[in-house]
Amino acid sequence: MQFWRKLPAKIGLASGPLAFLLLYTLLAPSPDSASTTGAMAGIALWMAIWWVTEAVPLAVTALLPLVLYPVTGIAATKAIAPAYFNSIIFLFVGGILIALAMERWGLHRRIALRLISVFGSRPPGLLAGFMTAAAFLSMWISNTATAVMMLPIGLAILSRLESALEAEQLPKLQLALLLGIAYSCSVGGMATPIGTPPNMAFMQIYAIQFPEAPLISFGEWLFFAAPLTLFLQLGIWLYLWGALLQFKGAHVLRSDVIRQELQTLGPVSRSEWLVLLVFAATGLLWTFRKDIHIAEFGVHVTGWSALVPFGQSVDDGTIAILGAVLLFLLPGESVAGESAGRLLDARSLRRIPWGIILLFGGGFALADGFGRAGLTEALSTAFAGAGRIPDWLLVFVICIAVSFLTELTSNTALTQVVLPVIAALAAARGLAPLLIMIPATLSASCAFMMPVATPPNAIVFGSEKIRIADMARTGLILNLVCAIFITLYSLLTKDLFF
User: Domain of 337?
Assistant: First the structure.
């Protein structure tokens, strides 16, 4: 059995280099020379195979450009190395450190319980409360951490309902609540650039592929994606409610249960207030850094960066690091007998997911190589000769393809392989690249069928209270629904945002 589990990795380990050599030689312009375009195509395929099969750790695959680009003449190491640490990486690092501070002082749990308490104690209200809390937290901290924190709260609430619900009602509520937590952790991350890795991968790849285009700010992404996230959340809630929670019942949970959970946290500590202050200030600085201008609604807000000296030199990464540094400076309270220190300490740096950072870097290097080796132009030429299909159908097909492909592989790795190709497709068709790149990025967070698709799915499945068949059946419908939502929303708002 162990052999069969490792078979895809073993096949991928050999087929990656073989695919590289095949393309490298087939696309050579003459028998005596090698094409950097062919080399780049081979490297991209090699990395894609290793990422999909996980033949080696994802971060190790991400390092291949540092070796292969110099030896194939695509770029020198010193030219490609900056792709592994840039402003988007600093945005990620700062966001992670702020999230770690929220976790360390329990602020995320308090926010979750407060949000849950707003929606009442009937099954639809409980589901809405848990989904809202999971989505909001996933906007700011990793969806994995959110799911890990929300699952015990959900299981604790379900345990209190065993005597209040009939035998056939509890499994339905249990399934709806756990799936609602998992799906909301994924959907909530779509709303902000730091909410999920594919969003940050997109922002840097877009900057690499279209260097003359204005950079997308935190606020611009938020104003586009937050309404879509709300629509998706509402659609998922309506489906879970309609499919699973259609049973009669009064208030099945006493109104003081959530209050008791909050009381176990004690009063809000000074450290929590300070973390909340840094978190809120960072969010506001991100959102209003650049001008907000929506002509169709007569909305124009001048960004603060235009009002301060050298403000145009500040980006979202600067703000993220400022917030993180403050957390290392502000005093915290003693915890579990430890002497009082700072809100964050040196141990927090060890919890930064450096493997994900290398994965980001590999994707950025891949996108950079597409341009350096002329692969983007080659793909554009190839796509230009293909038959045209309506733009709406193209967007929908891309959304469907990405959402189902990410059921089988890392959404970050998939996004970083697919986006440069989609950028070339947009150039070939004369489309605004954002019109298909953003839907593809968002669809990478809409994998709802399989436990292996996303960490939140795996975490709730690990509770052993959900069957794969139930998750797959529900997720299949929601994959399709989300692809339709994302396609319609992108097309309807293209004049506002694209």
Answer: 87-350
Profile the chain (498 residues) by mean pLDDT over runs of 10 residues. 60 91 77 70 91 87 94 92 90 90 89 83 84 92 84 82 67 88 93 90 90 86 92 93 69 66 86 94 89 63 84 89 95 68 89 88 89 82 68 90 84 87 85 91 90 84 84 91 94 78
Number of domains within the chain: 2
Contact 240, 451 (CB under 8 A): no
Domain membership flag for residue 101:
yes
Using alpha carbons, list the distances in angstroms from residue 373 to 50, 61, 419: 21, 19, 16
Is 150 contained in some domain? yes
- Alpha-helix residue ranges (DSSP H) falling in 169-217: 169-188, 197-209
Same domain assignment for residues 210 and 314 = yes
- Report which of 3, 30, 36 is spatially closest to residue 374, judged by C-alpha positions: 36
Residues 149 and 57 in one domain: no
**pTM over the 0.70 mark:** yes
Q: Does 129 share its domain with 225? A: yes
Beta carbons of 101 and 344 less than 8 angstroms apart = yes
Task: Establish if 196 belongs to a structural domain.
Answer: yes
d(CA 32, CA 266): 74
The verdict on residue 209 lying in a domain is yes
To 10 degrees, the CA torsion angle through 193, 197, 201, 204?
Answer: 40
Residue recorded with tokens 């141990």: 347
Point out which residues pair with 293 in neighbouring strands.
300
Half-sphere exposure of 204 (CA within 13 A, CB side): 32
Measured CA to CA, the distance from residue 313 to residue 63 in angstroms comes to 30
Same domain, 108 and 197: yes
Phi, psi torsion values for 299, nearest 5 degrees: -100, 125
CA 437 to chain centre: 14
